[in-house]
Amino acid sequence: MRREPTELDEAYRRAHRGWYSIDLLALAGEITSTNHETDTGPKYRSYAAAGVPVHVLVHRQEKKAYAFSDPVREEDPAEARYATRVEVDLGRRLPLPGPYPALDTAPLLEG
Q1: Counting beta carbons within 10 angstroms of the beta carbon of residue 65, is it exposed (0 to 12), middle (13 to 18) or buried (19 or more)?
Q2: pLDDT tens digits for 79-101?
Q3: Rounded distance, CA 61 to CA 30, Å?
Q4: Which of 36, 73, 88, 109 has the most CB atoms lying inside 10 A of its own CB?
Q5: Residue pLDDT, tens place only, 47-78
Q6: Residue closest to 2 by CA, chosen among 21, 29, 30, 18
Q7: Euclidean distance between the first and final Cα of the chain, in Å?
Q8: What residues form DSSP beta bridges with 28?
């Protein structure tokens, strides 16, 4: 989280079945489902448009992991993106921007 939740944040969470507002997120992670286009398109752009500082994506079909950072907001949210992208093959360590340690993706190859 970017900050400690306020009472208003907690009210939002209660009203939305356990979900906090996206402006509290400092890092969002996704492991692609069967709908890869949604995970790599609209969700990616939504996180960038909301200003989530780091977005980690594990793309099971490509067998790759990505770390996106430095969100670029645009007037049209559908054009939002991340300025920085780091990519590794699954099984390797994915470097993340500070304060996060590198993500070991080897366990994602198991099972």
Answers
A1: buried
A2: 999 999 999 999 999 999 989 99
A3: 13
A4: 88
A5: 999 899 999 999 988 999 999 999 999 999 99
A6: 21
A7: 30
A8: 55
